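Hi everyone,

Forwarding the result from last night's run.
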Amino acid sequence: MAAVIVITFLVVSVFVKTASESDKEAAEQSDLSEAIENPFENNASSGTLPAAEVGLLPSAPSVAPVEYKVIYSNNAFSPSSLVIKEGDRVTFYNVSGDFLWPASDLHPTHKGYPGSDIKKCGTAEAADIFDACRQMLPGESWSFTFKEAGSWSYHNHLRSSESGVVIVEN
């Protein structure tokens, strides 16, 4: 009789242990499914993922600014129309035998690009305006970084009929 009790005890113990492990695995699977369906549940007030999961999120690719060239020769800009992105830089190269002064339209005030004004030439603000603020000798260059989206016409301040446009997209 003692042998029957021991065998019954062993069978019941194995059954209970197996059942509790199955319940535990099912609970863990349920918790995992719930976390996948609602990753913000633990941080509902902040709307952020737990710190351990942040590294798993894909990040937006960073795009480095691009440098473009505009060549001034034979009394014209080439290309005369250029499409760029915000933050890109345009360098104007004077490869002619004449002087060049690239600047934002409208001639002669140069107020076409936001914040630009010929009156800011020679001030601390000159570095932020679309205006070379001087005559460029043959062989010189001048660069400007476009921070505002829009269509920005420009001209040679020394010969205002020589013009071009930079179209800046978001």
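The first strand starts at residue 67 and ends at 73.

Cheers,
N.
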